[in-house]
Amino acid sequence: MFVNNLVIFLAALPAIVVSSPAGLHDNDYGNGGRYGFKSCKDRGVRPGKVSCINFDSIETNATTGLATVPKDYTGLTFSPQWSVINVTASKNKLPAGNYHSAVSKPNALIGSKYNPNNKNDRCPASFSVKDGTFDLFGFYVQPMGSPPPGVWVNVIGHPADEKEKPFEHSFEFSHDVVRPSYFDTDKDVPDPRLWNNLKKVEVWSTYGEMDWEFFVDDIWVRWGNETESTFTAQNNELR
What we know:
By secondary structure, the chain is mainly beta.
């Protein structure tokens, strides 16, 4: 996925990639998620059942900088459309705008609709749970390179109740993006409660009809479903 696409991508690199700004450091990402957290490195009191999932403990290939996500990693099952990339070790292979795509270093995910196990499968990259449910608070996302206008990211939440319709949120990447953006279900969508009690989340990015690769890191979830009163009390206490 990444290795094959990168060769094609680099051929067009001078026309679409911008330089990474000087002085960009880990603390530039800030915070402000549902409980005042965004990056997994943010410190503070985390409510029970809340986890920030990064991929830094996964060992990547010394040559390619890539790896697959282990089965049932930290309680989530990641589809084959995801690959782990050591961003720190792969800077000489990446566009300059992606040097900071790993919010918690060194690793991040790369997603697309490419399934190395089944090339006819064009389903979006997804993460899910087999048992129980999870609430999605947010995650960092960034496109490969510096995209032209019209590159969109789409996120679909699949409720545990199969009678409920999945719901979707889409937004357009800025053409001059040089660091990940935080998709915040507490602030970026009309009703954060829609992103509670999920079984699966799908993510994909497109430019017209073309699949566009993207990075994801630091996924915030809460395991199991809590009542609205508990959610509100914790929110008021921790903000």
